Amino acid sequence: MQALAYKAYGQVMQRTATGRALEYAVFEQITRDLQSALDDGGINFGAWGDAIYRNLQLWTIIATDLLGPDNALPDETKAGLISLSEFVRRTSMKVLSGSEGLADIIEVNRTIMAGLDGSASSVEQEVI
Questions:
Q1: How far is the C-alpha of 70 from the C-alpha of 66, rounded, in Å?
Q2: What is this structure's pTM?
Q3: Which residues, in sequence order, are CB contacts of 43 under 8 Å at separation 6+?
Q4: Cα–Cα distances in Å, from 75 out to 68, 71, 79?
Q5: Closest CA relative to residue 127, chosen from 94, 70, 68, 87
Q6: Residue 109: which of 37, 26, 11, 18 has the closest Cα?
Q7: pLDDT tens, position by position, 63-83
Q8: What is the pLDDT of residue 118?
Q9: 96, HSE (Cβ side, Cα atoms, 13 Å)
Q10: Residue 12 · residue 27 · CB < 8 Å
Q11: E strand or H helix at 46
Q12: Integer CA distances (angstroms), 22 to 18, 19, 41, 86, 96, in order
C-alpha cells in the first residue's frame, strides 16, 4: 500500500539531495495533483482517487516516522503533526464518500510546504 508514496519519494529523490527539499518536492507533487482534482471537479475519478490515496500514504509515512524513537522533533511538534495526520485521514475518508473537504487537505499540505521552504516562521507555528 505504501508503494505509491515511496514511488513519489523515489521520483523526486533524483532531483534533490536534502531531506527538507525532498519532503517539499513530494508535498508539492501530491498537492498539485490534489489541486488538479479539485479544479476539475472530480471528473477524472481515477486521478482524483489516486491523488487522495497518495496523500494518505504520505501522511501515514509521516505519522510513522514521528512515532519512531529516532525522530528528534520536539514532542509538541510531533503531537501537532500527528493530529494533522489524523485530520487528513478523517477528511480524506469523507471526501472519498462524497463530502466536501479536499480544499482543507490542500490547505494543510500547503501550510506544511511553507514551513519546509522557510516561508513560514516554523512548521510548529503554522500547524499547531
A1: 9
A2: 0.77
A3: none
A4: 12, 10, 6
A5: 87
A6: 26
A7: 999 999 999 999 999 999 999
A8: 80
A9: 15
A10: no
A11: helix 45-67
A12: 6, 5, 29, 22, 28
Q: Grid coordinates in use for 17? A: 539531495
Q: What is the grid cell recorded at 42?
A: 472530480
CA 105/CA 83 separation, integer angstroms: 13
Report residue 85 as a C-alpha cell: 495526520
User: 74 vs 66, 79, 88, 122, CA distance in Å?
Assistant: 10, 9, 21, 12
83-122 per-position pLDDT tens digit: 999 999 999 999 999 889 999 999 999 999 999 888 655 4
- The three cell numbers locating residue 52: 487522495
Which cell goes with 46?
481515477
Q: Could you give the C-alpha distances from 92 to 76, 84, 105, in angstroms and in order?
A: 24, 12, 8
